[in-house]
Amino acid sequence: MEGSVKEWLAAPNGVVRKTLESMGTKIQAEFKVSQTSDLSTAGNFHVEEAADTMVGKNNELGTKDIDALDISAVILDIDRVPKFGKLSWDDRFFLEIHATNNGESHNIISQGQQGVKCLMWDTTFTFNVSQTSRLVFRVLGYDGKDSEPLPIGIAIFEVDELLQQNSLIRRPFLSSAAFVHIDGIPTLSFRAAQSGATSSTGSLSLTRSLGSFTQELSAAVHRAADINVQPRQPRDYDQDKRIIEDAISRASKDNGGDEHLYPLLVKIGIFVSVAERLAKLHPYANIAYSILATGYEVIRQQIACENGVIRLMHTMQETYDLVMTVDALPHLHTQKTVLEAIVQQTIECAFFIRDYVNTRGSFAQVIRNSVLNVESQIKEFENAFKDLQRNFQSYMSVSTQLTVLKILEDVQDFGTKADFRDMHYAIDARCAASCAVHLPANRAAPPADLITSLQSWVIGDSKESERICVLSGPVESCSAIALLVGDRFQFASRLGSSYCFRGARYNDTRSYTNLFSTIARDLADRNVQFKQNLWRAVGNDTSLRKTRVAKTQFEEFILAPSRDVIWNGPYLVIIDGLEMGGNEATRKEVLSVLVEKGAELPRNLRFLITCQPEDDICKAFSGQSHVLRRQLGEACSSLAMSRTHNHQDHAST
Hints:
Elements: H1 5-9, E1 15-22, E2 25-32, H2 48-58, E3 69-77, E4 92-101, E5 104-111, E6 113-114, E7 118-121, E8 124-127, E9 134-142, E10 150-158, H3 159-163, E11 169-172, E12 187-194, H4 206-210, H5 215-225, H6 237-253, H7 261-274, H8 282-294, H9 296-302, H10 307-323, H11 336-358, H12 360-369, H13 374-393, H14 414-417, H15 431-438, H16 448-459, E13 468-472, H17 475-491, E14 495-500, H18 515-526, H19 528-538, H20 542-545, H21 550-562, E15 571-576, H22 584-597, E16 605-611, H23 615-621, E17 627-632, E18 634-635, H24 641-652
Parallel strand pairs: 8-17, 13-16, 13-17, 14-15, 15-16
Antiparallel strand pairs: 1-2, 3-7, 3-8, 3-12, 4-5, 4-9, 5-18, 6-7, 9-10, 11-12
Helix pairs in contact: 5-6, 7-8, 7-10, 8-11, 10-11, 10-13, 11-13, 15-17, 18-19, 18-21, 19-21, 21-22, 22-23
């Protein structure tokens, strides 16, 4: 029996009467239908209209922003579904996820991979939703004959419900079409988490370091910091001072036996809260905190015998002690230049500390083969912080030079010999020059949690981390994210290169034939070891320097020079609008080398690639362990699946 839920609900008193016929026998069936808060999972029935109605009703509810939700590891277990009517395993199957937020509808479509009696999606789907939103999952099949996709089934979830579950989510998948023959009910499983919410083992959570700082403390810090901005507002300055000093004292004592790193994290954590007032500084202060927090356990265990590193940590803590005194808080807004320099220096030293204690063998090799001396380097870092302390105390707004890790700086006038001018280079291709031009000024800010998630991926120190992140979705959203992430890592002196294919293309030279050569020349400006290795490879080979072959450029200009390079912290390379560099045929070589050789990139060199979900790009990166795939929801009023599939058919022919 099948029927329309809308018609059943309209029956007199909700009582539905039906006559069934089987092999000449008539059976009278009678049942009662009533609307409840959710859908029953028993039996097979039409739920498409009910789902649309429920999603529509949700728009009228109050919303609570959670920034962004990630859906990943989606699997449809169809062990008990022997066939799909007109469809077969030779056909294509697509997952459609529909969500609403503040009256806007967002959709994602992604082609699945056939497993053993299951369909799989290895992409992380990201939606800007609220806790009161509802997600509707549909799986559809396309045999290339019908103009419309054939529905397989549907499942509906409340976002609030998903956020309360920490494990793999499983739900029976309901059939929504009469032609689908089902012996049982298949199962849809996936993981859901707020973007940016990470729980890796061995890291110090933000909750631990700031757990003793109550809402009262946060309010006191902000009142103290605002005293000169709003002098007429009544307040008890002495009481605020006691609250702040008592909280800092309690947190410093509760260090779990860690007298070095934990107190530093506490002070940086408080500064993160204060930096919210200084809007530009807040995200960078978060980066500084995250670097040390994610490597907390390793650093804490390894620094016991590292007197120089311990001394550096104490100097950094003294700097934040000075900045975070109650008497200094009201004047922070007048010292933005010095505070920016303190945060930049903190990021540089945080990467040095994390990588030094984790890769001391590599550093020891560098010491033997170069002029670098770790003790003198640490002393330079200490002096940089002491200079910043003096600048802060004297209210000096000066241009402070960032003190960085020095490796192979004095290599026999090498810098004057390296000349890469005949290596193909795309002028004005960087995101700051291209992305900003074509993006509307009134564009919505990207979800903060998604940005945090991408930052965590870049600064992650795991050797197993994906080297490449492919972010697909609407053009404006992807470019806005590329621009914002690039700006933050540029501030941290960690933007290795950026190449934007989008924007005006008048008389420019952007193409796949100079993509990797441009990136290589930019990286040579960031790391003197890389620059030396690159020149050794191409200095006496004019033919190689001038090559336009993407595969050769990636292998000889990026992989080979980077193999024995010491990167202090990560460097980010951004490629925005990959699909815009040419057609599918010319793109094939670029995709091939990223897929086949991308896993060989050093662990501190990360590629963020944004694009629209073109069929060839999705297929190339699907199932690659060194590639993190993300797809953003696209705002639209209705979904034209047939147009999407027709486009994909055209792209693949």
